[in-house]
Amino acid sequence: MDWIGVVRHGESTGNVAREVAESGGHEVIDIRQRDADVPLSDGGVAQGRALGRWFAGMPREQWPDLVVSSPYLRALDTAGLALRGHPRMLVDERLRDRELGVLDLLTTHGVAARYPEELVRKRRLGKFYYRPPGGESWADVALRLRSLLRDLDGRRVLLFGHEITHFLLRYLLEHLPERDLLAYAHNSVVPNGALSSWRREGGRWVLEEEFKSDHLRAHGAEPTETEDATTRSA
């Protein structure tokens, strides 16, 4: 590879439900589907279509020669809207969102109310290594992403993933220390439909674009900055 990019999925109905639950002080996020089946919201569909118009107007030499998507519906549908008919579009479960185990569907308030002992464990272990019962740590997700990166066989590769994918690619490609990674993630929100990308320079990866989202507004969709529970609540 000499270029790699990642697009966060368009706004999902789960993103919207989480915002409602967090702002309302609820303990549980009202999502009926399993995480893998949460669809795009109407705004997320508009963002996916805007991505499609952006790619359609791009010179073909700037297109990725390999596209890999998370198997989660919100990412798959974003990839399909953005690059429908691409000759090399794969799905890989190593790009899925972080699994939260017993903390699934809980807001920040819900975790504190129902599992206060887990907050104690999280403070002791740190966010990067803390693994909820039945779930994954950030380090677990980094491990499967590291495995995926070794298997990619394109020159220009575009991934469709999740908010945590953007953060952990900086950790893996740029070798950010744990403390810097978590400070960066704490102070950043990845817009839905945003692109981050890196280019290869002298044997190292250099950040080229960070959370680029102006293409959405330019092609008729509004960016949204809805956070994921996988990077915030747990």
Total helices: the number is 9
CATH superfamily name? Phosphoglycerate mutase-like
Q: Mind telling me the CATH class?
A: Alpha Beta
The topology string of helices and strands comes to EHHEHEHHHEHHEEH
Topology-level CATH name: Rossmann fold
Large-scale geometry? globular
Helix content: 25-40%
Distance between the termini: 33 Å
Q: Radius of gyration from the CA trace?
A: 17 Å
Strand order, main sheet: write it out.
3-2-4-1-5-6
Number of strands: 6
Question: What does the main sheet amount to?
Answer: 6 strands, mixed
- Taking pLDDT < 50 over at least 5 consecutive residues as the criterion, the unreliable ranges are none
User: Based on the structure given, which CATH architecture is correct?
Assistant: 3-Layer(aba) Sandwich
**Proportion of strand residues:** 5-15%
Average pLDDT confidence is 95
| Class by SSE composition | alpha/beta
* Integer tally of domains: 1
Keywords: Glycolysis, Isomerase
Pfam families: His_Phos_1
InterPro entries: His_Pase_superF_clade-1, His_PPase_superfam, PG/BPGM_mutase_AS, PGM_Phosphatase
Protein name: Histidine phosphatase family protein
Account of the 3D structure:
With 234 residues, this protein is α/β, with parallel strands linked by helices. The chain has one domain (3-218): Phosphoglycerate mutase-like (Rossmann fold), CATH 3.40.50.1240. The protein has 9 helices and 6 strands; from the N terminus they run βααβαβαααβααββα. The chain has helices at residues 13-23, 42-56, 73-82, 108-114, 116-125, 138-151, 163-174, 178-186, 214-218; strands spanning 3-8, 66-69, 89-91, 156-161, 195-201, 204-212. α7 runs antiparallel to α8. The mean pLDDT is 95. One of its GO terms (cellular component) is cytoplasm. Keywords: Glycolysis, Isomerase.
